[in-house]
Write a structure and sequence with these properties.
Blueprint lengths: L1 H25 L2 H5 L2 H35 L9 H13 L2 H12 L3 H25 L3 H9 L4 H31 L12 H10 L2 H29 L2 H9 L1
Helix pairs in contact: 3-6, 3-8, 4-6, 5-6, 6-8, 7-8, 8-10, 9-10
Length: 246
Amino acid sequence: MHLLTFKAYRFTLLVILVAAGVFIERAGFIKYLSDPFEMRFTINLILQHINMVIVSISAAAFIGLTIGIIFTRPKFKKYSGVVMYIVGLGQTVPSLAVIAISMSFIGIGFKAAVFALCIYSVLPIARNTLAGISSVQSWIIDAARGIGMSECRILFQIEIPNAMKVILTGFRIALIINIGTASLAFLIGAGGLGDHIFTGISLMRMDKILAGAIPTTLLALFADYLCGLLGFLIIPKGLRLDEKAV
């Protein structure tokens, strides 16, 4: 039964890939990128897109991790709900509105786009850091204190490693959101793959739309794969074995 299901999935995937290939070819995507100028331009847009994502997600990760760690400390834990609400306002507002507000304060260009993307990406990282560290069982922390570990060592050697799976899930969500939202940065003059997408929409050219949409999709899939690989590398082996046992 499982073998039959696997074959059905494989056949369905093959049909989807063939249909997608036919659609892409008929839309003129391959012919469009066969032009050396358009290929160089597309590569330049991809690099702009990646640059925006790396800078903004790095800043968001630093801010989110810092907030998550600080507000799991006993002295500040009572304020965690209020802080998460304030941080969550960044995602309550639609992404296009966040970019527009950022532009009104900073101006157009790369800095405004990075600021908006950072604000939009902080919540998943901060929330998952807070949830992950808070979910570490108290008896583990008590045992660590019992053998004389300092609070700093408990944080970095006990709490964060045990919470790493949850933290990485938040980072993965933030990264995928960031890659998709970065397409809107074109609207404030920051470049990126949104250049192809919005220009294609205005000109009603499917080949140009696909030249922006397909690389954006591939970037998101590749980023998701890298996050999975990162999790395999940094999540302690014992925790991975526990998950398999369950």
